[in-house]
Amino acid sequence: MFSYVSLEQRVPQDHPLRAVRKLTDTVLRRLSPEFDALYADSGRPSIAPEYILRALLLQVFYSVRSERLLVEQID
Fold first, then answer.
1. Cys-Cys crosslink for 70: which of 21, 28, 39, 64, Cβ 3.0 to 4.6 Å?
2. 70 in a domain, yes or no?
3. Is residue 67 part of a domain?
């Protein structure tokens, strides 16, 4: 029912997504100040654009046809 194996242990070291993650980390780190400048300091908190972009990349890589299905598969 519960899994005590971390995600790092589940994904093989030579999996292609590890290289993609390093690249996206670098790019999103550079874009983060620009994203921060677009959002107001007050109001309802939003989902970080970095998370949304990562999810969209997974959606494309795994050919998930809708955002709703993507959220179901991520859960």
1. 64
2. yes
3. yes
Q: What does the pLDDT look like over 24-68, one tens digit per residue?
A: 999 999 999 999 898 888 888 888 899 999 999 999 999 999 999
Looking at the 3D structure of the chain, how many domains does it have? 1
Q: Which range of residues forms the domain containing residue 56? A: 47-75
Instruction: Please report the sign of the dihedral spanned by the C-alpha atoms of residue 33, residue 38, residue 43, residue 45.
Output: negative
Residue pair 70/59 in contact by the 8 Å Cβ criterion? yes
Is residue 22 domain-resident?
Answer: no
The answer to whether position 8 is within a domain reads: no
Angstrom distances, CA of residue 25 to CA of 3, 29, 31, 32? 27, 6, 10, 10
